[in-house]
Amino acid sequence: MSYEVRSLNEECGVFGVWGHPDAARVTYFGLHSLQHRGQEGAGIVANHQGKLSGHRDLGLLAEVFSDERILDRLTGEAAIGHVRYATAGNGSVDNIQPFLFKFFDQQIALAHNGNLTNAKTLRKALETDGAIFHSNSDTEILMHLIRRSSQPVFMDRIKEALNQVKGGFAYLLITEDSMIAALDPNGFRPLSIGQMVNGAYVVASETCALEVIGASFIRDVKPGEVVIINDDGVQIEQYTDDVQPAICSMEFIYFARPDSNIAGVNVHRARKNMGRLLAQEAAIDADMVIGVPNSSLSAASGYAEASGIPYELGLVKNQYIARTFIQPTQELREQGVRMKLSAVRGVVAGKRVILVDDSIVRGTTIRRIVQLLKEAGAKEVHVRIGSPPLKYPCFYGIDIQTREELIAAQYSEAEICEKIEADSLAFLSENGLIEAIGLQFDAPYSGLCMAYFNGDYPTPLYDYEASYLASVE
Amino acid sequence: MSYEVRSLNEECGVFGVWGHPDAARVTYFGLHSLQHRGQEGAGIVANHQGKLSGHRDLGLLAEVFSDERILDRLTGEAAIGHVRYATAGNGSVDNIQPFLFKFFDQQIALAHNGNLTNAKTLRKALETDGAIFHSNSDTEILMHLIRRSSQPVFMDRIKEALNQVKGGFAYLLITEDSMIAALDPNGFRPLSIGQMVNGAYVVASETCALEVIGASFIRDVKPGEVVIINDDGVQIEQYTDDVQPAICSMEFIYFARPDSNIAGVNVHRARKNMGRLLAQEAAIDADMVIGVPNSSLSAASGYAEASGIPYELGLVKNQYIARTFIQPTQELREQGVRMKLSAVRGVVAGKRVILVDDSIVRGTTIRRIVQLLKEAGAKEVHVRIGSPPLKYPCFYGIDIQTREELIAAQYSEAEICEKIEADSLAFLSENGLIEAIGLQFDAPYSGLCMAYFNGDYPTPLYDYEASYLASVE
Amino acid sequence: MSYEVRSLNEECGVFGVWGHPDAARVTYFGLHSLQHRGQEGAGIVANHQGKLSGHRDLGLLAEVFSDERILDRLTGEAAIGHVRYATAGNGSVDNIQPFLFKFFDQQIALAHNGNLTNAKTLRKALETDGAIFHSNSDTEILMHLIRRSSQPVFMDRIKEALNQVKGGFAYLLITEDSMIAALDPNGFRPLSIGQMVNGAYVVASETCALEVIGASFIRDVKPGEVVIINDDGVQIEQYTDDVQPAICSMEFIYFARPDSNIAGVNVHRARKNMGRLLAQEAAIDADMVIGVPNSSLSAASGYAEASGIPYELGLVKNQYIARTFIQPTQELREQGVRMKLSAVRGVVAGKRVILVDDSIVRGTTIRRIVQLLKEAGAKEVHVRIGSPPLKYPCFYGIDIQTREELIAAQYSEAEICEKIEADSLAFLSENGLIEAIGLQFDAPYSGLCMAYFNGDYPTPLYDYEASYLASVE
Amino acid sequence: MSYEVRSLNEECGVFGVWGHPDAARVTYFGLHSLQHRGQEGAGIVANHQGKLSGHRDLGLLAEVFSDERILDRLTGEAAIGHVRYATAGNGSVDNIQPFLFKFFDQQIALAHNGNLTNAKTLRKALETDGAIFHSNSDTEILMHLIRRSSQPVFMDRIKEALNQVKGGFAYLLITEDSMIAALDPNGFRPLSIGQMVNGAYVVASETCALEVIGASFIRDVKPGEVVIINDDGVQIEQYTDDVQPAICSMEFIYFARPDSNIAGVNVHRARKNMGRLLAQEAAIDADMVIGVPNSSLSAASGYAEASGIPYELGLVKNQYIARTFIQPTQELREQGVRMKLSAVRGVVAGKRVILVDDSIVRGTTIRRIVQLLKEAGAKEVHVRIGSPPLKYPCFYGIDIQTREELIAAQYSEAEICEKIEADSLAFLSENGLIEAIGLQFDAPYSGLCMAYFNGDYPTPLYDYEASYLASVE
């Protein structure tokens, strides 16, 4: 029989707090600042004197917890939470995290941000041995490994399990007496520790979540580390020594919030630098620089500053975009209907425009924006991309899964330029990107993962090896 | 017995189309681009071969029409729609427009953007004469006046009614055979006419709604005009000659969308000019200019350009702000919890910041933003406001109703600066504002209404006269 | 232009209380026992120290008030409420009562059970004179008549208005200082007054609503009476002397609840008598008597008792019938799918069955039930109907509107028997019905309206005259 | 750490069909007739060419499938479904069945009606061995046992698992190629096989579900049988020979629908016989017999028939009882408020009433009904119960869990009579019950389970033994 696990890539956000009398509410506000990392669903599990209880559902955080009584019921002095990325069509609440498990001898909840490369193999082996899975998320695997470990001490069970899963992962667990965080040996995903004024410890996917609740930054979780937080404080251990930093460069390019710092680097600064270096690498004469709102505004302002060409607001983003939407008919589409973005005719008409965007995936969006600007009267549109061409899929948690959907994997720069109907097109170089971000690790690419650009994956691909090899032939 | 009509100020948006086979859907997309003008409720009435039917409800447009079948049922070749401004606590669907009236001899639907100054007087007179109102909105009044007019010809009834209502209004009506638009004698609110590729005529509160459906701009509706659109085309008449342009300057300052043009002036351009002139009027040395997202980004970039000081992204706006929200407890509020705006520590720490905002109403928001920046390490925060101090209430449709809530009506600039804990504070001058917008009408203030700044109301205040006089003593 | 007011027949229920600290909650429970009179929508308006506020919506009472906070907000010492009959397809909340009107000099709420015969004429005259209606219910008419009356005293305005409306009506109004009930000159619809233990006065469509809240019965409202209840007690006046009792016999036959008394006659008793007399008029030998649940169980038990034939439970009604339902496909319909009623095979198989039903409208339901019984093995099915054949429409509030839909208006008893595939068919005689109910009024038919059976309408038909005459030709 | 599995008793309903092109819709209608067996939640899993997909949620069936598109998406030629009993406070969708499992080598869905007596022991053993449970329902246990079985052939795995679970159970499973039903060795719960006109096979908890979809009855599933239905037809095997019929007598007394047959006995007939025998055992002179609607009407009519005392409708049940309800205040409760049942004053006033009910659990309901009748004027109320006193808990699926809640376990008949304020009280004898039902099995009590009456449990109690023994001391 044919069997297919649809690999759910999980760019998600996790947040946890230990030692606050209103832990679920703190978690709510922390998660709120991580909402950009996942809009499909959200959940919180609280620990009240060793008893766990939770709530999760499909929808934005504010929808899932729209009834204030839900949070009121989640009393507890510790909590973890999760926001889940929208992957079209798989909207079952069974996949919304944290997963809460109640055993006769233990209660554990588990949240996960990342993607395992050996999930299929592990799952098949576990099922063959009698395990029953209830979601099609990778996340459950760790729990089975922990519960089946023969180690007598619980932390040793966790370490044993962490050494069996491969790929990109940031785990956050809560038990009766501890909160536990762990990062994969490459540290693909960001994960930071902070502390609140009252002494409570906080773990979050991005530092913006620390800011929002007034917590101070302590330090990032490092590759291969497991962090145990309980009433005795924070204890950090290394569950493996086989580590090598390879931080996801897409976090800097478009995924993380501009006010977050990753590995000590401010994301807005990094993006502005991408724009600056892009201006040096791919200068052109024009009347104005405009960015695609909102993610490319930092890079665009960097480009403007470095080039001396004025930065303008040439595109307006409608802030009332609903997630379920009336679709225009074909005829209306042809007549107009730009619900998300509008070109400002009064700004761009008759002008030569440099359009800065953060990246190109399929090329369909940028093509539509170029058209928009031209219809609004722009004389020339020169596209400048703040990152190198995306040519390879990501297996560590970013939702780029096949080479077929990547326009830069199929076509040359000149061909892409023609397809998107731009007057010129340039990408930032790989070295430019590395320099712009400016990590200082003693590791390839200064500690960045550059695999989507050059296919140089920092780990074996396990279950994905065969399909990857087929795709690059 | 005491009787109080709570005057509902109505910054709203209207949109209508005549002559398109999918009129309700066109109206949906037009209204979608006007959503910033009102989020409390939305409605559409369609005309199918002379029969009117409609749908309206509380909520965002996309929520009200989330079930695609609703639009499918609103077949028709003409339609009008309305988005309504959120006025806290009065959320009854009875007030959501368009209002649809079915008489034994006529069907009419009516939508309204504005505020009448003699509503209370007219309503009392009408009720004394047996009229029954079903909403507490001003909008119904016009319909009673029309139906009670003794004029034999329908258009004369409308003109007679338009001459009885006073204040700020943009009306949009649809009958069995026509769509009718009318603007008050001062033209406080914007209203424009456009045409689609297929010849259909469109009326909209802002030109951005023309762009979104691919319609070309024909001309603005002028003060004192009534526009009749039907299968014979467009006919424009003057229902009064006692006109004097006094376009609401707050539309330019913060209310309209930056890609709209009002009286031929692009809103983004006008805002950028406000920033430029502010930089000249109130220069100061600093490390960076930042704007309050999103409405003040144009002015901030103008300030930066004119001053030569770099424009930076120092504040991040969370784009996932729900309308109903879990409120932080007092303790959490003190510890942090900035759900809407965050300061980018990596950008502002140790810097002297010029913070540009469009206006100050109560002063509470700007005070919180200054605090945010200082907590994120800003060394100095110099507040620059792209408009003059707001000192007087608006009676023509902007929701500023009492002097008590206006900080600039109570305190001097120096006092405000101290209250908001800024290092310096400056407002744009009245002349600066008039110059930045650059209207050319042969009228006071070049055709702008400046009443909120200087109390120079372009009309008598009727029902509001007494309370206004009491407030300024 | 063609104009059509779809006459909404209103078998509804009204309830009001004056002088109870929790008036809205009392009204909720009173209405709950009247839910059988209307399931489309419900509403309550409360009077708190002279200020009226209300809530109404589509749905069952328990749905409309499912959020307990709604009732909590409706504080007040007096209240009126309404449940509205489901008329397919016209589900607008605009038609849900009570209607609440706030004038500059007065607040009034209004609820109505009945149907006016001159509504169209009155409405057209009022609209011609400038009146604006907001619903397509008859109910609004009274309010326009009251507000336009030239009488200086409010009660005289009401009496003047009551003398202008014709047909069947039971009105319940509440103002700042009084609750007012009025019944039409024929007393078509039931309306009773009761008193609670604490002295509060209650008005209700049926006496079962008095029982449910523990109120004692005082007396019925009589034809042509208007009842004023306020802090001074109850005052009853006659607004017209042109009265003649003609109580709707369908209330006894199937509409009212069996535990209610109308004009002193218990409804269950009346139905049981109908069964008893039917057994005498139309005896037949059989093995068992079964009734159609639930409305015909009383009549069936009467038939069984009088005939000496055992009463059996041969039909089971599924108590979980949802109002919106998945429809079976054609194929499934043919294979079975009886969601509402099932025949008990173990009871009826091989037996001769007397099937008692209260009335036949279209004949489709009884035909399906006969089939059901035969498929379950019944050897013979003899249909006995506890009322005379329905041959004429009702214009006073029962939803039988055209003769076309009445099978007995089109076919003879023998033809109907054949169409419904019964082995025999008999109806109760008109005299039998009158005797079974046993009213004692000095009026035609002892005070019953028998018009649906014999076309003898107790009032002129006004707006319906023409269409009625056309139908009987 | 303390760990408590709240044992969820599961009086539920299951339905399945194999071989119908619209299997999910057939299942919907089948389940609809089983809604009385469970109102907390419902679900359906369909099999389309070997692929399973499902939908389940909290609420009534019609609510769970209110959007017709859900059923449309559940295409398939086979399906199983489940309705779940409402157990207060544990309303998580995780417990709603069928449970759907997707393994790398197999897809299975599982529904269950019953209660296991060794669930806690099995669950603890499985968890100790690494199993992870996702609900707190007993139902999951069977799936773990199946997947962990070492038998090579799938049907042998199922049989091995069935021999490990103890207590009362009716399982219904669906796999890629078969539908499988199984009954416990005592046959506590009913389960029947039928066939549709097109040849499709059907399995259902009660025969009323066969009637509703037009299927003919084939035979009951017998104790210890496992039924395999696939494209080759029906195959029935015995998974154990250690069987002894002990059909739950409460199914006959009040749980099953009157039109169902269990073990060939019609439920209405059985109830009527209970009434007849009760009349013989506990005769008394009175004016009328009334039953508590709806479950006791059969028994009441039997009592009336046998005694010759007239059967009357003395209690009316409000058919619009919502599941979430506004609660009356204490004061209102005292003044009346009988939302569910009303006494018919016009029937019972001044009369001596025999009140027939099916059973007494806590005694609170019958006490309230006696009061109701007395307040409505009944001179005497003689309570007659159609079953013996309930004295012992049920561990096989009926929600009677502790002796403490059973009034007959604490008090004598005389004491109960006094507590419920009746004029006399009598129960049907055990022999009377056995005779009334009339099973013919060669087993104790002719094949009935009488344990709730006499503590004679037909199986060991396993996990419940200790608490049971404590309770009877």
TrEMBL record, chains A, B, C, D:
What GO MF terms are annotated? amidophosphoribosyltransferase activity; magnesium ion binding
Give the residue spans that cross the bilayer.
none
Listed cofactors: Mg(2+)
Q: Write down how the cofactor binds this protein.
A: Binds 1 Mg(2+) ion per subunit.
Signal peptide residue numbers: none
A single BP term in Gene Ontology: 'de novo' IMP biosynthetic process
User: Which residues does the record give as Mg(2+) binding sites?
Assistant: 295, 357-358
User: Which pathway does this polypeptide act in?
Assistant: Purine metabolism; IMP biosynthesis via de novo pathway; N(1)-(5-phospho-D-ribosyl)glycinamide from 5-phospho-alpha-D-ribose 1-diphosphate: step 1/2
- Give the EC number: 2.4.2.14
Query: Which of UniProt's keywords are assigned here?
Result: Glutamine amidotransferase, Glycosyltransferase, Magnesium, Metal-binding, Purine biosynthesis, Transferase
* Reactions catalysed according to its record: 5-phospho-beta-D-ribosylamine + L-glutamate + diphosphate = 5-phospho-alpha-D-ribose 1-diphosphate + L-glutamine + H2O
Top-level taxon of origin: Bacteria
List, alphabetically, the SUPFAM superfamilies matched: N-terminal nucleophile aminohydrolases (Ntn hydrolases), PRTase-like
Q: Any keyword Transport?
A: no
Q: Does the keyword NAD apply?
A: no
Query: Which Pfam family is an annotated match for this chain, by its short name?
Result: GATase_6
The UniProt record lists the Glutamine amidotransferase type-2 domain at 12-232
Enzyme active site: 12
Do you know which PROSITE patterns this protein is assigned to? GATASE_TYPE_2 (PS51278)
Q: Quote the InterPro entries the UniProt record gives.
A: GATase_2_dom (IPR017932), Ntn_hydrolases_N (IPR029055), PRTase-like (IPR029057), PRTase_dom (IPR000836), PurF (IPR005854), PurF_N (IPR035584)
Reported function: Catalyzes the formation of phosphoribosylamine from phosphoribosylpyrophosphate (PRPP) and glutamine.
Return the NCBIfam families for the record. Answer: purF
Q: Which family does it belong to?
A: In the C-terminal section; belongs to the purine/pyrimidine phosphoribosyltransferase family.
Name of this chain's protein: Amidophosphoribosyltransferase
